[in-house]
Amino acid sequence: MSAEPDGPEDRLRRFATIWSRAVFPVTSTSSTRPEFEARLVPLARRLSEALRARAFDADAGRAVGAALVRAHCTDPEALSRTLDCVDAYLVLYCGEDGDREDLRARSARLQHAMAAGYAQALRERTLAEQEAIAQAALKAQGVVAQALHATEARFRAVFEGAAIGIGIADLKGNILQVNGALRRMFGLSEQGLLGRDVKDWVHPDDAPHTWRLYDELVSGEREHYHLEKAFYRPDGTVLWTNLTVSLLRDADGAPQYQLALMEDTTERRLLNLRLRYEATHDALTGLPNRTFFFERLEKALGAGEGQRFGLCYLDLDGFKTVNDSLGHAAGDRLLVEVADRLQACATAPGEMVARLGGDEFVALTTGPDTQRKVDALAARIMNALLAPISIDGRELTVRGSIGIVEGPAGERSAAEVLRSADITMYRAKSAGGNRFELADEEADARAITRHGLTTALPTALDRGEFFIEYQPLVHLGDGSVRGAEALVRWLHPQHGVLSPDRFIPLAEDTGLIVPLGRWVLEQSVRQARDWRDRHGGEALGPLRINVNLSPCQLTHPGLVQDTLDILERTGVAPDALCLEVTESALIGADDDLLKPLRRLAEMGVDIALDDFGTGYSNLANLRRLPVSVLKLDRSFTQSMQQYPADPVDLKIVEGIVSLAHSLDLTVTVEGVETGAQAEQLRILGCDTAQGWYYARPGPPDRLHELALVDATG
Predict the structure, then answer these.
(1) Could you tell me if 447 and 429 are in contact, meaning their C-beta atoms sit under 8 angstroms apart?
(2) Which of 107, 319, 452, 690 is least surrounded by Cβ atoms within 10 Å, i.e. has the fewest?
(3) What is the DSSP letter of 174?
(4) Smallest Cα–Cα separation from 433: which of 396, 406, 405, 398?
(5) Residue 2 reports pLDDT greater than 50
(6) Please, which residues bridge with residue 404 across strands?
(7) With the C-alpha atoms ordered 652, 654, 659, 665, is the resulting torsion angle positive or negative?
(8) CA 456, CA 449: separation in Å to the nearest integer?
(9) 354 sits in which H/E element
(10) Is the sign of the CA dihedral 301, 304, 305, 309 positive or negative?
(11) Is 349 helix (H, G, I), strand (E, B) or coil?
């Protein structure tokens, strides 16, 4: 076995060699195969560069397709072999270290572009040939007229020897003479053609102006015309031609005959139709593809007043599991079966189904009454997916989530409609799947805003758009400020100040929560050092800073080391830091998850169990958690804002405080808003509290002022 080429240039030339060997046998060229291969090398290089370019360039594919025509690769088999070769070997030899899935997707798009460029070049070549034929026709007109007046022998030589079909008829349309090429095109004898009326060859696909041009010619108003026309052969098949008809005048200039020149373009037209089909249909399922669907959707959205549209955007639930467990071949067969079922659901006029890619399909319905029709279409699709699909002896249950958009034509663009359908589909999927949802403008706006915030998050930290506010922690016994909780905010350029609930979930989804959390921790610890330095001595006592940890940060391997490094750089003692972890994040936590918290606790960092009482955890589980502080959720103390307080809530809080103290845990209460509430919590034995009664979250200087007031009485 030969070794694989070492460098990119060697692999490129190997690809060109394979390409030339595949295409050369069906190429009409006087070049040798090595010479032909040399012509393919720059084309292969252009495909390779387009495959690995940062932005996809369809012009490169079209240029390569056009170059094949210039290289005399005009046999349909040459294009077919080229596309097969590109599909099989371009990524293998020219993809280098790129992502294979992305490269294969780009290779497929290059193939479509090549086919389009090939078809366009072939069409331009055809038009050039047609022009030459038209010139020949005009020349033939003169030759025939001269032959009629001079020598019948010379006329016969031109007439019978022509490679294109030639026919002569009188001005009434009766066919007088035909040559051999024309007889072969129609598959008729001379007797079968002579005497027939030209107007008998009306075809349903005739252009509207076809017979108007004919009437103008035979009446002497026009000298010639040229168009594409179809004819029926005796066997029922269709003959497509490039037809040029000219008027022949006698010696006195009076109209006498009509001369028709025909070029058989049937095979070329079939090739163009095939290329068009391949460019607009999905290769796997045969359904219209994204390109074709967008054309139909734009046409539907541009319909006249009173017309509406309905769109169902379908994504299969759990399709990735099929690919991962059974393989992509099984996944492909599943998609083919789903496509067949969807096709059977959209058979009414104005309905169509297309595959956008992967396991995403769309169904479109148009007309004046799509409000009812689109719901019925979605229901048919859901019912069509109920029956299991047999793949490799396995019965697979297929479910799908559908987003529905319906409305009047002319109000939205195709991109906006598809985006709304996509958003709605994901809303159906997040609601559990196997259902359909109707588009909602407010939900769309929220999703678009959420997407905008998600994309802006990575650069927001670099641009310094985040800042921290601090809410004091007050000792219920003497009213002194013991510390503060750090609360991050986002000063968004368009949306203003955003609270954590607007962006922390997005940061967790994108993984930005780790660098953002590290930044919050370092800024907060530096602020704690600044408070210590400004207070001076021990007059006020140490102020502790509380920082929230998300579940993602808990599982990050650098949590302990990052915390230790920040404390060492800032010169802050570990006992001045308290890390808050929500109770729900620790439900069912194993030793691996608790290990970093235990290490931090051993270093002297306090661990607080935040939102305690909302996670339905076993109270006995507190013994194994490395926590030193319980933060009672505000839901337990809301009733204490009124007098008298709910006795049941009082008993619950009293029991939790008693249990916490028996485990050497301190208790902090959130959401304290009234003096009566604070007093009641003090009586119940709670240690510290925070809430609007004391201060809203604010800048760090505000906490410093509160601490000084407490210290000076």
Answers:
(1) no
(2) 452
(3) B
(4) 398
(5) no
(6) 312, 438
(7) positive
(8) 10
(9) strand 351-357
(10) negative
(11) coil
Token pair for residue 153?
């022998």
145 sits in which H/E element: helix 100-149
| Alpha-carbon distances, residue 54 vs 65, 95, 103, 445, 550 (angstroms) | 21, 13, 11, 31, 36
Of 336, 330, 343, nearest in space to 396 by CA: 330
| Of 276, 249, 244, residue with least CA distance to 261 | 244
Amino acid identity for residue 566 in this structure: I
**Amino acid in the structure at residue 409:** A
Q: How far, in Å, CA of 78 to CA of 67, rounded? A: 12
Ramachandran quadrant class, 133 (left: phi over 0; alpha: psi -120 to 50; beta: rest):
alpha
583-624 pLDDT, tens digit per residue, is 877 776 777 888 999 999 999 999 999 888 765 555 667 778
Residue 398: C-alpha distances to residues 243, 364, 394, 540 (Å): 54, 21, 12, 66
What does pTM read for this prediction? Answer: 0.51
Q: Rounded CA gap, 668 and 632, in Å? A: 6
Element (H, E) at 305: none
pLDDT tens readout for residues 432-467: 888 888 877 776 666 666 677 777 788 888 888 888
Q: Are 560 and 600 in contact (CB under 8 A)?
A: yes
The Cα–Cα gap between 82 and 67 comes to 12
DSSP state of 698: B
Taking the C-alpha atoms of residue 698 and residue 469, their distance in angstroms, rounded to an integer, is 5
Query: HSE on the CB side for 313, CA within 13 Å?
Result: 24
Q: Distance between alpha carbon 142 and the CA centroid of its chain, in Å?
A: 61
Q: Dump the DSSP string for 73-90.
A: --SHHHHHHHHHHHHHHH
Structure tokens at 391: 């793949």
Work out the burial of residue 112: count CB atoms within 10 Å of its CB; fewer than 13 is exposed, 13-18 middle, 19 or more buried.
buried
439's enclosing H/E stretch is: none
Kindly report each contact of residues 107-110 with a partner whose C-beta sits within 8 Å and lies 24 or more positions away, as own/partner. Answer: 107/51, 108/283, 109/56, 109/58, 109/61, 110/47, 110/50, 110/51, 110/58, 110/60, 110/61, 110/86
Checking 488-495 for CB contacts under 8 A at 24+ apart, the result is: 488/516, 488/520, 490/460, 490/465, 490/466, 491/465, 491/466, 491/467, 492/453, 492/456, 492/460, 492/465, 493/465, 495/449, 495/453
Q: Which of 659, 600, 657 has its CA nearest to residue 627?
A: 600
The model's pLDDT over 561-577, given as tens digits with 9 standing for 90+, comes to 999 999 999 999 999 99
> Please, what's the b/e burial string for 260-291 (b: 16 or more CB within 10 A of its CB; e: otherwise)?
bbbbbbbebbebbeebeebbbbbeebebbbbe
Amino acid type, 265: T
**Angular region, 497: left φ>0, alpha ψ -120 to 50, beta rest:** beta
User: Which residue is it, tokens 């097969």?
Assistant: 84
Convert the pLDDT of each residue in 368-423 to its tens digit.
888 889 999 999 999 999 999 888 888 888 899 999 998 888 888 888 889 888 88
The answer to whether 414 and 302 are in contact (CB under 8 A) is no
